[in-house]
Amino acid sequence: MTTNxxxxxxxxxxxxxxxxxxxxxxxxxxxKLGDNVExxxxxxxxxxxxxxxxxxxxxxxxxxxxIEVIPSIPKVLRHIKEVVADIxxxxxxxxxxxxxxxxxxxxxxxxRKQNIKLPQMHYVAPQVWAWKKKRAKTMYKYxxxxxxxxxxxxxxxxxxxxPAYFVGHPVIESDVIKADGSGFRxxxxxxxxxxxxSLLPGSRKNEVAxxxxxxxxxxxxxxxxxxxxxxxxxxxSTVENNVKKMMQKSGLDYVVIDNEADRYQAFHVSEAAxxxxxxxxxELAIAGVPHIIAYRVAPLTAWLAKHLLHIQFVNLSNILxxxxxxxxxxxxxxxxxxxxxxILALMDKKGQLYEKQQAGFKKVCTLLGMGERTPxxxxxxxxxxxIKEYNK
Length: 392
Hints:
Blueprint: E1 7-13, H1 16-33, E2 37-42, H2 45-49, H3 73-90, E3 94-98, H4 101-113, E4 120-123, H5 135-138, E5 145-148, E6 164-166, H6 184-188, E7 195-200, H7 205-225, E8 229-234, H8 240-248, E9 254-257, H9 260-269, E10 270-275, H10 279-287, E11 291-295, H11 299-308, H12 316-321, E12 328-330, H13 336-346, H14 352-367, H15 375-390
Parallel strand pairs: 1-2, 1-3, 3-4, 4-5, 5-6, 7-8, 7-10, 8-9, 10-11, 11-12
């Protein structure tokens, strides 16, 4: 696409996973359009590295849980007003919200209500196949186009007047595929005799507060069996200080790393990983790292989720395959003794659980849409076509 006018793309990413998707989308758009594109909106560290000056710190929005989010509501509502006012002032060529539909939808509704004219798009479909299926019937009222990460998702929306396009899951374009782990041990002074396990307690403060103490207790139990265990904690800026403070008191051999390249290197030298549910679990699957999912939320949140969610699994690898290859240790099952037993079983490379995971991971990679173009390049094309159609 060529144009004499520099395109102004307004992006809104409400949490670290969306920030990563946004940064890759920005990179793809710059590769396609060169200097003919500029970005504004809301994002995190990786989007800012690509040139975005974020309207506010997305840490304010990184809250997980149906009950836990309540104290943050006034701040979130204020940020919605800020975004809408900024869009009105900057008059971008398109609005693309990324993930976080609960936050994003309120922005889109306000834009519609104020009759601000621009194409409105959303990247990452809300999981209507899991809960709130009625959302699929009404989303066309607020957005013009939806880009999905999974091939089976468009069919939930297209019958209800919403154009939806499968672009592929951006995790398959991450450097986790290229990383090989060489030099990681030397960089952080980790001896060859050390058995590395990655601990990934989430990207939100409330996740870290609930999960990291359990992960630390698990790590201590493992060390009692073999004092050669070493723990790597890849993290993000939203929770880095919290993670470091908690680990300082642990007495474990560990390192906290805060950048994407080292995270992927760490995966390739890890014998196993303990992770919160989320995109990182897909990265572990692509890297072939044996892992388990361990997660806790507030009891009331758990009760509500049990009665509202219509899915058998929470881990996307399991969802895609329709069977459990990654153990999901949730709520009361998320305790140190249980996690330890599963990790030790996974580290037996001749064991049934290990072999089942490795075979499943290969199928997951295929289902995520590996192809000639990256998901971000596909998303870039959809956005440019939407702008063109809108301006006809």
